Amino acid sequence: MSSDTGILNRLRTGIWEDNPGLVQLLGLCPLLAVTTTFVNGVGLGIATLLVLTCSNVLVSATRRLIRAEIRIPMYVLIISSLVTCIEMIFLAWFPSLGRSLGIFIPLIVTNCAIVARAEVFASRNSVSASFIDGIAMGAGFAVLLGTIGAFRELIGKGSIMSRLDMLFGGEPMSGLVLVDGGFLLAILPPGAFISLGLFVAAKNALDRRKQQTNRPISSNTLR
């Protein structure tokens, strides 16, 4: 198997087959709280991706130096240091987005998906493999955050991709307004649980349909 194929397989695993939020159901606190808009979801998704990738690399590079008895506290120390750096970058270069995300950037430290990848994968694999795993799993989480954010914003506010200026700068942008107003429940906490449930159900339905399509036809079926 070529390296390109292996990377594509890891990306497919992280984005679809073993998505941290959609399949493993990890990191649900920021996923449910922040995804009221597309920009918020993408912003936190990018921050999580950066922290997950860098922590995987650092844990893998130092795995032979960390004693087994203190590995979890050391992982948390590495992750918290990276989160502090990311928070400072957001507040310096993306102040509006940093203020919008608020406490949920520091709370990346408590995201169990990041600690889980450090323990399950990075501590047992090479730096290059851990880097690819961090990109794949972080991308899967970021894609899910952005998609649920876009869905909730569309249903709840009747707009899509509003305030893109928080990501790219410039004048405030209202995005694409499709209707005047929306279904308020979608951007409230119950709407977050309902949206995630719909996405999980949709993925399970697509997976079952794919399995049925790929299932070989038995001789009994042909009779």
Q: What's the total number of strands?
A: 2
- Total domain count: 1
Count of DSSP-assigned helices: 10
Structure class: mainly alpha
SSE topology string = HHHHHHHEHEHH
- Oligomeric state of the chains? single chain
Bulk shape: globular
> Kindly state the mean pLDDT as a whole number?
89
Q: Indicate the percent of residues in helices.
A: 55-70%
Distance between the termini: 39 Å
Query: Which strand order do you get reading across the main beta sheet?
Result: 1-2
For the largest beta-sheet, the strand count, sense and barrel status come to: 2 strands, antiparallel
| Range of strand content | under 5%
Radius of gyration (CA) equals 20 Å
- Unreliable runs: none
Task: Describe it.
It is built from ten helices and two strands. The chain has one domain (3-214). 67% of the residues lie in helices and 2% in strands. Strands 1-2 form a two-stranded antiparallel sheet. The longest helix has 31 residues, at 127-157. It has 223 residues and is mostly helical. It has helices spanning 3-17, 28-34, 38-61, 71-93, 95-101, 112-120, 127-157, 165-168, 189-214, 219-222; strands at 159-160, 176-177. Helix 3 (38-61) runs antiparallel to helix 7 and helix 4 crosses helix 5 (95-101).
